[in-house]
Design goal:
The protein is an all-alpha fold. It contains seven helices and no strands. Helix content is about 70%, strand content about 0%. The longest helix is centred in the first third of the chain and has 23 residues, at about 5-25. The chain is elongated and about 55 Å long. The mean pLDDT is about 90.
Amino acid sequence: MIPDPSTLKLLALLLLGGVVVYKDVRERRIPNWATLPGVLAGLALSAVEVGGFPGLALLGALVALGLGFMLFALGGVGAGDAKLFAAVGAFVGPGGLLPVLIYGGLAGGVLAVGSSLRQGVTRSALRNTKDLLVHVLTLGRYGERRTLDSPEAHSVPYGVAIAVGAVAALLFPLSLGGGVS
């Protein structure tokens, strides 16, 4: 008996996530040989699921790639993270991207707090976060622009957070719209 396409998508996403978590934690990089097949698997499984052209999956991959590379250009994530987000977009479509961002952001925050506590850099991490928030909220007039290349930057393997966010979004979908009663 062949599992239904949604189960296959979850299994493929778990496999992709497992590879990415291993490589990102161990080497602090996410290889193209993992992300490109991830995009193709998401598109293929979505095509099976809808019984035709996977338009929403393709749109999800493209929107996620655009958002990911915007964050990369701003120095907030690595290129591998951006490509992983595109692969995830192929699995969840454009409607699933916001839940992935929410769950992934929560997972990334937990990772960052745990990592800063373990490394004893909590105070500087909080100061850097405050400076970045002030910089963003004042549209660059105050605070300091922080990127992954900043001397005091404290980074975490964010592929872990993206993978956790993707799996959580599939397992625990969020209803983010307000319906009309």
